[in-house]
């Protein structure tokens, strides 16, 4: 009897069971599912988005890359995870992408050119985005020589982030979803694409605000208005001096 009781005890999971119903598509609890806000049917675009995602992003509960994947036709947004690209898990697929003259990488550097100035007649293009905080994005770029050989582009007209439940580093920084949506609006010459693709983000933010979350201002805004509660470190100071943030989101 004691042996049976012991076996029953060690068979109990250390983690409490998750009894909340979850959406099969976005994997979020049904009550906070944002899938009804996705475009139906998923949008057909000529361009492709390739997201190089830092492993830490997968742990974030409010990540936005999945919204982009589900908002576009299958295959139009692909995500690869890692800290260096290509790596042993994706070398063949990514090398083919990196070797294409139609592949661009969104990265703010002295050599990057405005995406708005790219000749669209040379497309359709594949746009590579680095998904992570700004330090993570810089580390991925620095450790991935293949990215250095791609044509580098930057966004000039980024607008203000609608990801108002997350503190952005500066006023010009966007979430991964917003960055990709803005880029697609430029590459596809369809200005309304951004608004359509970010609707799930709007739905998510509305639910959070309706249930006690507060609207966040950027660190740049808080510092300009003397409301930032912490000393400014060297890393944040350098970041605030960047003119383009690209997809460097979610600094906390």
From TrEMBL:
One of its GO terms (biological process) is tRNA modification. Belongs to the TDD superfamily. DTWD2 family. It comes from Drosophila persimilis (Fruit fly). This is tRNA-uridine aminocarboxypropyltransferase. It holds the Pfam family DTW. Residues 19-213 form the DTW domain. The keyword Transferase applies. GO terms for molecular function: tRNA-uridine aminocarboxypropyltransferase activity. It catalyses: a uridine in tRNA + S-adenosyl-L-methionine = a 3-[(3S)-3-amino-3-carboxypropyl]uridine in tRNA + S-methyl-5'-thioadenosine + H(+). Its EC number is 2.5.1.25. It comes from the Eukaryota. Keywords: S-adenosyl-L-methionine, Transferase, tRNA processing. The keyword tRNA processing applies.
